[in-house]
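Curious: why these numbers?
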Amino acid sequence: MSSSRKELGSSLLETGRGLLPKEARARKCFGLSLAALLLLLAVLGIWSHHASSSDALGGGGEDAVLMTLPPANLDTSYSPKRSFDIVVAHYSESLPELRSTLAAITSLPALAARKPNVIVYTKHATTPLASIASALHLPEASVRRLPNRGREGGTYLTHLLTNWDDLAAHTLFMQAHVHNEFYLLQRLRDYFAANTGYLSFGFSGKSCPLTACVDEWGWRDRYHQLPSIYTLLFGRLPPPGRFTLSYKGQFIVSAQRARGVSKEKLQILQNVLEGPESPYSRNVAEDGEQGRDAPRFGFVLERAWGLVFACADGKLAKTCPSLWRQRREGEALADCQCLDS
């Protein structure tokens, strides 16, 4: 590692501490110390200042290198009570359409055998929970209301954090209007297995340099939040290289892999996404409570779920076939996902 990278790394904690007045250190933000939140914001700020030059980070030739992430931590001591949960992020999408989608998913042989449990989180302020449950043929207790902030990422983090000791062995996270439903079902049939750790149902083959990410639709990591997430998760600066992007907020993750991230780190991500002190919890051009339903950090997190769950090696963008076609003979399960064993 170059001396400039070492100096940057050693400055992260000192900068985080320097932002905190003594009286702020005892305050809490959504259950996590403000110190931890401000530390991550300090990391974000440092990347914003330093990462505009790839040379400053030793990132020359990064575009051609495929990144390999550190191995995932797995909580192998955890014993789930249920086999499979489906978590749905809902706002005002068609309930008959959602019911049809859920029926198609739960009837797949691999899932039907696991007797999936469905939980719907709605962010619509007035729709009665009982009417949603009735329309979906679910028990009323399976439908819960959340404040309308944080996009679907806030819903997913809320579920993980509030059910930390009650996570199913696997959880499918999806929005109420599934993107490319036919192909999601196809990928579930082709790739889901008992040892699936993380499996995305977004577009395949999409990658970018972690420290200077611009995707093919023009989205840009303007505030260098992706390398900051890497630093939070792995405790080091990212090496040069391309990582695999996730899209559409639809994926499966195992409880072992999710719990291996650590509750504190997921809480920090939620605080940056939804916390009132976080400048990244607001919409790009809006202020106030009405401007927190689509925060800028939500678009980063959508692309970073694979990174969060240590399944975003650059090679996955090369080995995983297009979402539009079936798995062929000879193609390995690991070509499109990360396995826990």
About this structure: The longest strand covers residues 84-90. The chain has a mean pLDDT of 84. The radius of gyration is 20 Å. The chain has one domain: 61-323.
